[in-house]
Amino acid sequence: MNSDILVSNYLQIDDFLTREDKKRLLNYVFAEEAEFVPTSTSTDETNYRRSSVLYSFPDFAELMSDRIYSSLSTIFNKLELPTFESSHIEAQLTAHNEGNYYKVHNDNGSSGTATRELTYVYYFYREPKSFLGGELVIYDSKIENGYYTNAESFKTIEPRNNSIVFFQSRYMHEVLPVNCPSRSFQDSRFTINGWIHR
Ligand SMILES: O=C(O)CCC(=O)C(=O)O
Ligand SMILES: [Fe+2]
């Protein structure tokens, strides 16, 4: 009965940036607080996603894509995926504070997002950690009427400080609600996340 379940694979790499870079990034984000805007989704559904996003952070977007490009063959290898030449890497910077979440979705379901092949999520936050929750849940898949949908089974990933996660953008996934009692922006669950396009 379970033979049609496609098990999802992910890769989590710890200590992705140097301590110095991670510290610079955190200070940069604190200084840019006023530039963050509420998130929306491509379908514009309300109550689907709640968080804040920063769209322009050129230096760190470049640092992140450099680091990703240099790890690309390892990433393909570990995920047991055929390599491809990536046309570009997209990046956004998010903050999840008290009560924020992102319900089940995939990242390449619309015409504007169809070339997203791999999703990456780099996690960072101030220590000591001042939020709970915010785990990333990645669902296994099954094919129903020729379309991928999520199976009941899933994996739960801890958003560890200075780690990065890679997985296929077609996988269904979600961000569980964040509990951040101080509600202070500086205590948020931060990410630089985005997509490796084919
Ligand atoms: O923050 C995360 O763990 C994942 C974010 C996500 O799924 C997205 O931005 O598409
Ligand atoms: Fe996503």
TrEMBL record:
Keywords: Dioxygenase, Iron, Metal-binding, Oxidoreductase, Vitamin C
Superkingdom: Bacteria
Cofactor dependency: L-ascorbate
Domain Fe2OG dioxygenase: start-end pairs: 83-198
Gene Ontology molecular function terms on file: dioxygenase activity; iron ion binding; L-ascorbic acid binding; oxidoreductase activity, acting on paired donors, with incorporation or reduction of molecular oxygen
TM segment ranges: none
Name recorded for this polypeptide: Fe2OG dioxygenase domain-containing protein
